Fold:
Amino acid sequence: QSVLTQPPSASGTPGQRVTISCSGSSSNIGSNYVYWYQQLPGTAPKLLIYRNNQRPSGVPDRFSGSKSGTSASLAISGLRSEDEADYYCATWDDSLSGPVFGGGTKLTVL
Amino acid sequence: EVQLVESGGGLVKPGGSLRLSCAASGFTFSSYNMNWVRQAPGKGLEWVSSISSSSSYIYYADSMKGRFTISRDNAKNSLYLQMNSLRAEDTAVYYCARGDGYNPNGSFDYWGQGTLVTVSS
Structure:
């Protein structure tokens, strides 16, 4: 059981817009930055979004993040086949004194 | 270019020990917090441990406390994880990940390729 709650799966067709939610509490998302990671099959995770809505250099602007209260979401617009991956949200938890991850969302491009 | 290269994984019997290493290059190692994150086969990411840039702050996930010890050697640009009393459920790929800033904060901006630890008799 993960501290942060994500839907286990999401899907969309090429060109569509897909959103992935991440729900937490006041001790984690509610009081800290949210980060999103993309893990392509067989590879290490990669930072996709930092500090709620910032994109590292090289990440396409098709990817965007937002946060409101104790929830966050990742949006992917103009869906492409290469976006098929697992996506994880993460943040710091003040009560646990450590980072926490969501359970991950497997995105399928139909 | 930031590079993180883990080593030390392998097959170990339950109750055994293993020491993982992470060699860092391409950045000022002593200015960043460092972390270990693991992923069991077919499962999601699980945070293991974090250490601040100067080793002043160290954190462990509850299930690792008392069994795992994180450390770093800034002179050698290296991060370590000493794992004792290993259990079958510790079987996972262990990733070394750089954190953003001096103190752990939940961010992991660069990741290594991972090293597989298998605990089995």
Notes: Chain B is about 0% helix and 50% strand. Chain B has a mean pLDDT of 96. Chain B touches chain A at residues 35, 37, 44-47, 50, 59-62, 95, 100, 104-114 (CB under 8 Å). The longest strand of chain B covers residues 18-25.
